[in-house]
């Protein structure tokens, strides 16, 4: 019978201060309309601060009926979400006065697309959208704006920069596509944000757009949490998906760079979940004094159980290229050649917009002849039970911040086999085995080792649980955020 | 009549590279491979297949696939970017939406044709039973209302992938809306029940043809037509038709219910679409010289050439949504806003107009030359011309609605109706269809030039109109 350290010491009670105005949390493709690690973190933070009222402004892709995937805590309410790419039919547009004589599209282009965009002009343009929301659509549909935009785009692309190769020459189609994207940037800036005492953006991307505007108008401090480095993930996605279209790749990465720079410039505090993210942020120009690493935390209310010794490997996460499910399938194939009784279960839904990748995974599964040795189980609302049913947890991501899956595995006393990306090595110290991303043989060897050595697996699992109690509890995480929030509001 | 296309703006599917994740990394378990600067260019070339776009891209490759720390990766990435060389003009990537929306266009056109044919076949028995004038009044109300309902349904539901599911979701409020339309008619005027039944039957046709049951709908109408001619009381077959088509609609919706997350179109947009559709219907029936209640099939059959021409022209207009983006691939920025009469947009529009005019002209001539008395009535060429003008107006208005130019479309349509009324009551022309032709022409004068001005600039129409709605 395995024994585990029983944390009998009383957990510190976090007394939370009630603020007169709440905190506006701005999410991007996550909470409360999608499940995942970031969403779980959002829910945990809000639930863990019952004395604070939260407004949630979600930025989502439109055209879909939105159904919250979480039951909101009583101290939270949902503001009207920002639906990108949705149909809109403003029936009237009020006449307005131009800002500085330049149209909104050109100003946004100048602020976002150059290697070092004009931050002051960008902020002013975004604020202009908020002050004149009815003018946004009118301006973007005007001939003069389109013409000025084309002239500005040609000039921006021609500007040399020592950090980049010569920019590709956009054709009219790509220029129109960028124009459309800037329109949605403007519409996002135009949304009304509720009164709040603090802005909390959960990514350095689209979610900072309304935050930048609100801060400029009302002086509200801005806290930016980075679960993954937005810019890094945008580049990885472009490398994977857009390599054969230089202009699309350039557009996608430059917009991400522009938004990230704007986010870092506006944030009063940046709270990465792992030191690996902090390293990127410092390298991209964020002063160390503004960075506070706050690791994710999780509740460990129940004592972990012993692994079932069923040679079952559990993976949790969205079916997404970042999770590198393809490598996981190859790993499963390699492991089951050594251990025919081993079984793999992948729990998680398909990421929005990644149906093609999911189909690719299914085809790979069929080509490898994995059959029921590897099963896609779909989404789960009870990851704890799923993890308890397995002997170890596997993570093959090519990019991660601090995945909640690791903490969930540690909470259940299960060892982890993972790729050494992002914050994973820092978390898994002494309680799991690591391999390089894409290292099929390395990952497979680690899994076989643990499945053949239950004692070693149990020891690593126990150490993971103890490490979790020392460093990664939800209470510790919430207390850290509460301290940072109080400091920011008090400035 | 050009249906509204629901344009999934900015949703082109990006082709995925085949992911070959079996890396040839050194078999060193549990630690990332070390590297030197000599290794970096080769790594970049292997991972990217090209030179890095900028220092950040190079740094990310070094960090992700070589295990370097972020700071070190960024510091060494500067030397790996090629700042020389000439920029290359790229060809943008475009992938078209699926074909579902084209099917709905065909279906809707079929429903409209069947509606016109049913009007043509019913005119005689209904005139005998109710009298020419009450029948004409019933048609003058039911046709615009039915077209308005069709345009609303298409705008809010039927132009979407899961349109029938979306419609099923709102079945109860929509049924209440239909009652709200029908009950006042039934209770107020003697021909009210007749009008209400025709509205119900024609509106149902849109749903059934969208479901793919167009032939079933046609068969039901044919059966109803036979019954109308054979039975004494027309209310019996018409009521049966209304009940059967309503039940078929219910079956159509029930059998296509899915748990979709897709969203219906906006209510305000649907109301605008309905207003435009109803306005076009009103334009069609408001000319008293056309005599919708005369004996024989005229002028109902006279509408058929224009309807088929409008259908074929409108079908061709669907190409606009692909032709424009494709035509802009490889076009340099300094040509992105040029005026091009030979541009894809102009060519498609001109092709649609040509198809409409040719079809309407050829079929009208064929009808005029048909022997026999079954067409009855007059053989005025002016009627065919008037219907042709209305169909062209309808196609242009529909295109404007789909491009979110509702304001211009409304102004054009209002002008058309006002001109038609003015010609009727002030000019006293005795030429059949003259008021209709004048009204439609006035609408075309107001709508076609701005449409041409827009379509002559493909880049601008894509960026500012098609993709900003």
Please state the oligomeric state of the protein chains shown.
Answer: heterodimer
Poorly predicted residue ranges of chain B: 1-36
Largest sheet of chain A: 7 strands, parallel
- Counting DSSP H or I runs of 4 or more residues, the number of helices of chain A is 18
Low-confidence parts of chain A:
1-19, 89-98
**Beta fraction of chain A:** 5-15%
The average pLDDT value of chain B, as a whole number, equals 82
Name the overall outline of chain A. Answer: globular
How does the SSE layout of this entry go?
The complex is a heterodimer of chains A (491) and B (469).
Chain A: E1 23-28, H1 37-47, E2 54-61, E3 76-78, E4 82-84, H2 104-112, H3 119-131, H4 133-140, H5 143-158, H6 172-190, E5 198-201, H7 208-218, E6 222-226, H8 230-241, H9 246-266, E7 269-272, H10 275-283, E8 312-316, H11 325-338, E9 343-347, H12 355-367, E10 374-378, H13 383-388, E11 392-395, H14 404-411, E12 416-419, H15 424-427, E13 432-435, H16 440-452, H17 454-471, H18 474-490
Parallel strand pairs in A: 1-2, 1-5, 2-3, 2-4, 5-6, 6-7, 8-9, 8-11, 9-10, 11-12, 12-13
Chain B: H1 39-48, H2 55-66, H3 70-77, H4 100-130, H5 132-158, H6 163-169, H7 171-188, H8 192-211, H9 214-230, H10 235-254, H11 267-285, H12 303-317, H13 320-327, H14 344-369, H15 381-402, H16 406-427, H17 434-455, H18 458-466
Structure description:
The complex is a heterodimer of chains A (491) and B (469). Chain A contains 18 helices and 13 strands. Chain A has 491 residues and is an alpha/beta fold. In chain A, the strands form two sheets. In chain A, strands 1, 2, 3, 4, 5, 6 and 7 form a seven-stranded parallel sheet that branches. In chain A, helix 2 (104-112) packs parallel to helix 5, helix 3 (119-131) crosses helix 6 and helix 11 (325-338) packs across helix 16. The longest helix of chain A is centred in the middle third of the chain and has 21 residues, at 246-266. Chain A is globular and about 70 Å long. Chain B has 469 residues and is mostly helical. In chain B, 67% of the residues lie in helices and 0% in strands. Chain B is built from 18 helices and no strands. The longest helix of chain B is centred in the N-terminal third of the chain and has 31 residues, at 100-130. Mean pLDDT of chain B is 82; it is low at 1-36.
């Amino acid at each position: 019978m395995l024994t585990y350290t029983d944390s009998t010491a009383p957990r510190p009670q976090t007394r939370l201060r009630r603020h007169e105005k709440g905190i506006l949390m701005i999410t991007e493709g996550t909470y409360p309309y999608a499940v995942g690690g970031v969403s779980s973190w959002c829910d945990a933070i809000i639930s863990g601060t019952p004395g604070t009222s939260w407004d949630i402004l979600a930025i989502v892709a439109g055209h879909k009926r939105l159904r919250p995937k979480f039951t909101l805590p009583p101290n939270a309410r949902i503001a009207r979400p920002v639906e990108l790419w949705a149909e809109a039919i403003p029936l009237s547009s009020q006449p307005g006065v131009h800002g500085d004589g330049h149209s909104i599209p050109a100003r946004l282009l100048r602020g976002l697309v150059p290697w070092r965009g004009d931050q002051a002009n960008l902020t002013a343009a975004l604020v202009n959208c908020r002050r004149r929301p009815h003018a946004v659509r009118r301006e973007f549909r005007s001939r003069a704006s389109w013409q000025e935009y084309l002239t500005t785009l040609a000039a921006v692309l021609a500007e040399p920069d020592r950090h980049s190769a010569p920019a590709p020459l956009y054709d009219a189609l790509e220029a129109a596509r960028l124009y459309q994207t800037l329109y949605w940037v403007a519409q996002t800036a135009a949304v009304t944000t509720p009164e709040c005492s603090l802005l909390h953006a959960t990514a350095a991307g689209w979610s900072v757009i309304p935050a930048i505007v609100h801060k400029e108008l009302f002086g509200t401090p801005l806290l930016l949490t980075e679960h993954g480095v937005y810019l890094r993930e945008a580049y990885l996605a472009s490398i994977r998906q857009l390599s054969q279209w230089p202009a699309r790749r350039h557009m996608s990465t430059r917009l991400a760079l522009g938004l990230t720079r704007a986010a870092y410039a506006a944030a009063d505090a940046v709270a990465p979940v792992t030191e690996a993210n902090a390293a990127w942020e410092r390298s991209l120009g964020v002063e160390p004094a503004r960075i506070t690493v706050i690791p994710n935390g999780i509740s460990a209310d129940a004592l972990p159980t012993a692994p079932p010794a069923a040679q079952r490997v559990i993976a949790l996460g969205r079916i997404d290229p970042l999770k590198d499910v393809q490598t996981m399938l190859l790993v499963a194939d390699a492991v089951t050649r050594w251990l025919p009784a081993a079984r793999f279960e992948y729990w998680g839904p398909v990421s929005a917009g990644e149906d093609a990748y999911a189909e690719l995974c299914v085809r790979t599964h069929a080509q490898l002849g994995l059959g029921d040795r590897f099963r896609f189980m779909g989404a789960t609302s009870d990851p704890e039970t799923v993890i308890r049913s397995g002997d170890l947890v596997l993570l093959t991501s090519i990019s991660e911040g601090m995945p909640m899956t690791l903490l969930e595995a540690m909470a259940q006393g299960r060892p982890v086999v993972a790729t050494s990306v992002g914050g994973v090595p820092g978390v898994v110290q002494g309680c799991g085995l690591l391999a390089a991303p894409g290292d099929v043989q390395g990952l497979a060897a680690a899994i076989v080792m643990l499945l053949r050595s239950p004692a070693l697996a149990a020891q690593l699992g126990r150490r993971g649980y103890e490490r979790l109690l020392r460093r990664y509890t939800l209470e510790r995480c919430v207390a850290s955020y509460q301290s940072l929030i109080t400091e920011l509001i008090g400035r | 009549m050009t249906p509204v296309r629901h344009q999934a703006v900015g949703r082109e599917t990006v082709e995925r590279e085949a992911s070959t994740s079996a890396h040839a990394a050194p078999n060193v378990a549990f630690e990332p491979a070390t590297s030197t600067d000599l290794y970096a260019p080769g790594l970049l070339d292997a991972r990217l297949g090209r030179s890095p776009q900028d220092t950040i891209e190079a740094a990310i490759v070094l960090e992700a696939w070589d295990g370097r720390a972020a700071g070190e990766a960024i510091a060494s990435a500067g030397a790996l970017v090629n700042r020389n060389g000439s920029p290359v003009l790229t060809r943008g990537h475009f992938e078209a939406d699926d074909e579902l929306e084209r099917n709905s266009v065909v279906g809707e056109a079929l429903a409209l044709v069947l509606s016109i044919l049913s009007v043509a076949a019913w005119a005689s028995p209904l005139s005998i039973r109710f009298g020419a004038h009450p029948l004409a009044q019933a048609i003058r109300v039911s046709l615009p209302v039915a077209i308005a309902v069709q345009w609303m349904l298409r705008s809010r539901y039927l132009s979407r992938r899961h349109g029938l599911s979306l419609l099923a979701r709102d079945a109860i409020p929509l049924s209440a809306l239909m009652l709200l339309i029908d009950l006042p008619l039934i209770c107020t005027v003697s021909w009210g029940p007749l009008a209400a039944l025709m509205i119900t039957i024609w509106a149902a046709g849109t749903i059934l043809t969208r479901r793919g049951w167009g032939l079933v709908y046609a068969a039901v109408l044919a059966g109803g037509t036979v019954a109308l001619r054979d039975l004494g009381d027309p209310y019996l077959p018409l009521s049966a038709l209304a009940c059967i088509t309503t039940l078929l609609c219910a079956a159509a919706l029930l059998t296509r219910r899915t748990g979709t997350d897709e969203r219906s179109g906006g209510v305000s947009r649907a109301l605008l679409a309905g207003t435009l559709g109803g306005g076009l219907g009103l334009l069609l029936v408001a000319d008293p010289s056309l005599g919708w209640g005369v004996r024989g099939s005229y002028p109902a059959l006279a509408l058929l050439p224009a309807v088929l021409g409008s259908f074929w022209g409108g079908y061709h207009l669907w190409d606009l949504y692909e032709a424009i983006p494709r035509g802009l691939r490889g076009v340099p920025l300094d040509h992105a806003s040029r005026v091009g009469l030979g541009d894809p947009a102009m060519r498609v529009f001109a092709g649609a107009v040509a198809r409409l005019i040719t079809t309407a002209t050829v079929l009208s001539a064929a009808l005029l030359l048909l022997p026999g008395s079954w067409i009855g009535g007059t053989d005025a060429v002016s009627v065919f011309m008037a219907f042709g003008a209305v169909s062209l107006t309808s196609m242009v208005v529909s295109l404007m609605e789909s491009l979110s130019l509702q304001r211009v479309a409304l102004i054009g349509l209002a002008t058309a109706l006002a001109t038609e009324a003015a010609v009727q009551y002030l000019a006293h022309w005795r030429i059949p269809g003259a008021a209709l032709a004048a009204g439609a022409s006035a609408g075309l004068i107001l709508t076609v030039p701005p449409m041409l001005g827009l379509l002559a600039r493909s880049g601008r129409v894509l960026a500012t109109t098609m993709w900003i709605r």
